[in-house]
């Protein structure tokens, strides 16, 4: 393969693109054609969708040609992600049939505008005379063709037009051209039951859905009850429930009227729904309802949703706006959590102590109190609270973690301060994420072979950087900040910086030794963002203060530069993650004399909703196909960077009857991690460091892309073919083909890995020379 230099002067600049373009995550939307006459039906449709599917919140495209501002406001009040799109009535003037003043005919024409949508991978159309009664999860998982329910009255050849599930290949100029040509030719039939143009083009070629997804009212003639399994009830015909209805269908219309309610009734019904509530819906409906009622329990739910999304100040605001009774422990605990996340520690402590008085919330409250004490360097206080949490609940995992942290004895420093570098990093606990455990040591190797306390002074990023910590850092030769994706808002939130290092501006500004930001990553997931201006202010100050500011991929560089003023952007440079050049950094490293005949598979489950969306079942099924096919050539084993990573083995066994041995890498030390990855033939990994660590020790990789950073790294080494999206329609086949291709040409692929690594090493060496000059060494 032809190589291209990756030195700073010639480094490829990754384009700034939407995260979903990097992860391949499917974008899904609902769509309806709405006019003023059918607005009452659409409002009921929106309520029914939220109440029947409370965990679902996709964009909803409203096609319209004449909606008043007041009507639009009513629509927006019922859905937080409305996308308004005017239809082009003139576009259909050349069509030869139909009365443009007839709503049914206009709807049949205008709904064809849905095929002109280009922003989504899947669009689900719903008629405004429908009501959603059941789970639509199966529709959201569909990935093939154009799906619809066959017409009840006219046989299987034609589709019923109210419900369409349209995939990307139909949302295209080519398919629209077919629709237009048929429309202009007049070679179709159109009546109140039939979207004739679409049926004429498809000629029966569509995916058949069960009738329960478009159960037409006429099937209930004679006042029959609505079947229990009906997911969508469609009030076809001229008589609509909001217009007085039609005799002989009273039981069907009763189901529709279940969702004809006031905003207050609707908000309360949603907030009381069982199962998981979608963050966007919970906030959209809960915020006005809390303002209207002052209900503490609803405020707690909304605040918890804000916390889950990283909107900590919003959580503080909504709970601070209601009166919390002293004996309501859960709201006190949530408010305490929110307050500590914005660094209002004294107020948080008061709230958590109130929560600790209730046995059902005490363990969690004590664990948070232990966390705050640890953050402030008070190990004795932290151990006291963690022990109290374990006394309430001996199985409480968080209390046990803080007890272990508080009881651990830091290594005694061996060197003099003037010989040391201070090192801000996330120092992982025992049984923590294996990649994060390896990172601090590997960062240190980038500065020399001695990674011990003789040369390094550890500063845990999550501990509050107070005046005493500042003095200790200023007594050293310099400060290195690095050891993972520190630019992420929610791993250990604080209000001082809004990223992982808990440093106030005044103390960051007072650092008077050289600051070197080394191989840090911008780690926001697809669907996650930094909403706080605090982060931007802290980031700008950090760049201003830094003598060296290196990020570990060009995607992170583009994201961070976009947040900086122009005069600071050029300070941001490329410094590969040192794990990717481990063969050059680890003292005495030798490549393995032999490799085991294995392929190691890693999957990640933190923030699973952001990783998989609606596609987890698809991902698991495709991985099962690949494991069977690859397993026919080479043994496949599961490697778990953290305890949660073992889920892939459990799910494959339960759902697909595949049993894989599990390697608990979270129990390994750093040498064992490197050795395991060096002695396997291929690593298929979803975690960033399930790609970078094996690559760094010379092992071929295939990345399962569920996070932009995976694509960033592969772009930097100019091997995008070494990655495949977890959402890929043909994931199993693609993964199998690439894996077997690598195994069949293993020596050649290893040589290519070494070649790509040499380019990263050139960058690292050039940066090392600059750092030596900065440190005067």
From TrEMBL:
Residue ranges of domain Polysaccharide pyruvyl transferase in the record: 463-705
Stored Gene3D superfamilies: Spore Coat Polysaccharide Biosynthesis Protein SpsA, Chain A (3.90.550.10), Tetratricopeptide repeat domain (1.25.40.10)
InterPro entries linked: Glyco_trans_8, GNT1/Glycosyltrans_8, Nucleotide-diphossugar_trans, Polysacch_pyruvyl_Trfase, TPR-like_helical_dom_sf
Protein name according to UniProt: Lipopolysaccharide biosynthesis glycosyltransferase
Protein source organism: Streptomyces griseoviridis
């Amino acid at each position: 393969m032809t190589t291209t230099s990756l030195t700073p002067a010639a480094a490829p600049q990754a384009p700034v693109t939407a995260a979903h373009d990097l992860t391949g995550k499917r974008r899904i939307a609902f769509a309806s054609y709405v006019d003023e006459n059918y607005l009452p039906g659409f409002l009921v449709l929106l309520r029914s969708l939220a109440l029947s599917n409370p965990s679902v919140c996709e964009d909803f495209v409203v096609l319209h040609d004449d909606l008043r501002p007041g009507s639009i406001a009513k629509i927006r009040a019922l859905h937080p992600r409305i996308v308004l799109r005017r239809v082009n009535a003139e576009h259909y003037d050349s069509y030869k049939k139909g009365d443009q003043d007839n709503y049914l005919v206009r709807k049949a024409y205008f709904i064809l505008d849905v095929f002109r949508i280009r922003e989504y991978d899947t669009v689900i159309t719903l008629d405004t005379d429908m009501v959603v009664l059941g789970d639509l999860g199966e529709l959201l998982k569909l990935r093939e063709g154009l799906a619809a329910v066959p017409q009840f009255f006219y046989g299987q050849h034609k589709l019923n037009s109210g419900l369409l599930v349209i995939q990307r290949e139909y949302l295209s100029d080519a398919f629209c051209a077919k629709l237009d040509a048929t429309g202009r030719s007049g070679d179709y039939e159109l009546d109140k039951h039939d979207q004739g143009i679409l049926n004429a083009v498809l000629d029966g070629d569509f995916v058949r859905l069960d009738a329960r997804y478009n159960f037409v009212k006429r099937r209930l003639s004679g006042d029959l009850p609505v079947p229990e399994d009906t997911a969508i009830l469609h009030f076809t015909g001229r008589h609509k429930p909001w217009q007085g209805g039609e005799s002989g269908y009273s039981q069907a219309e009763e189901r529709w009227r279940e969702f004809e309610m006031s905003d207050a009734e609707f908000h309360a019904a949603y907030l009381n729904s069982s199962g998981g509530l979608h963050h966007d819906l919970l906030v959209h409906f809960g915020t006005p309802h809390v303002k209207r009622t002052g209900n503490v329990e609803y405020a707690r739910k909304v605040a918890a949703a804000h916390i889950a999304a990283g909107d900590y100040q919003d959580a503080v605001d909504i709970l601070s706006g209601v009166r919390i009774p002293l004996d309501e422990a859960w709201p006190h605990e949530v408010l305490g959590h929110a307050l500590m996340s914005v660094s209002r520690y004294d107020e948080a402590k008061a709230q958590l102590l109130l929560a600790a008085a209730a046995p059902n919330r005490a363990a969690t409250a004590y664990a948070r109190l232990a966390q705050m004490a640890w953050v402030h360097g008070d190990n004795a206080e932290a151990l006291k609270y963690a022990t109290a949490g374990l006394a309430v609940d001996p199985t409480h995992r968080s209390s046990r973690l803080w007890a272990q942290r508080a009881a651990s004895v830091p290594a005694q420093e061996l060197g003099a301060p003037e010989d040391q570098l201070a090192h801000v990093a996330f120092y992982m606990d025992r049984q923590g994420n294996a990649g994060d455990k390896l990172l601090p040591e590997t960062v240190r190797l980038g500065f020399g072979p001695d990674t011990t306390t003789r040369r390094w002074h550890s500063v845990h990023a999550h501990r509050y950087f107070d005046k005493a910590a500042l003095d200790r850092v200023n007594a050293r030769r310099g400060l290195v900040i690095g050891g993972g994706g520190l630019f992420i808002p929610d791993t250990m939130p604080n209000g001082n910086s809004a990223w992982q290092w808990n440093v106030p501006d005044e103390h960051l500004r007072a650092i008077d030794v050289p600051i070197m930001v080394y191989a840090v990553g911008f780690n926001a997931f697809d669907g996650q963002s930094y909403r706080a201006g605090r982060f931007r202010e802290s980031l700008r100050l950090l760049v201003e203060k830094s003598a060296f500011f290196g990020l570990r991929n060009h995607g992170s560089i583009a994201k961070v530069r976009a947040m900086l003023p122009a005069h600071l952007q050029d300070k941001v440079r490329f410094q590969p993650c040192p794990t990717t050049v481990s063969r050059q950094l680890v003292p005495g490293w030798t490549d393995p004399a032999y490799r085991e005949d294995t392929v190691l598979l890693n999957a990640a489950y933190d923030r699973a909703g952001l990783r998989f969306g609606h596609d987890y079942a698809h991902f698991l099924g495709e991985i099962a196909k690949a494991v069977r096919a690859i397993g026919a050539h080479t043994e496949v084993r599961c490697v778990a960077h953290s305890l949660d990573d073992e889920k892939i083995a459990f799910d494959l066994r339960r759902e697909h009857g595949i049993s894989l041995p599990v390697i608990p890498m979270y129990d390994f030390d750093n040498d064992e991690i490197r050795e395991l990855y060096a002695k396997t033939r291929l690593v298929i990994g979803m975690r960033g460091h399930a790609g970078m660590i094996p690559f760094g020790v010379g092992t071929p990789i295939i990345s399962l892309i569920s996070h932009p950073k995976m694509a960033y790294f592969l772009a930097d080494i100019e091997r995008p073919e070494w990655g495949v999206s977890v959402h890929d329609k043909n994931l199993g086949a693609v993964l199998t083909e690439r894996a077997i291709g690598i195994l069949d040409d293993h020596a050649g692929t290893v040589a290519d890995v070494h070649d790509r690594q040499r380019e990263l090493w050139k960058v690292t060496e050039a940066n090392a020379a600059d750092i030596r000059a900065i440190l005067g060494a």
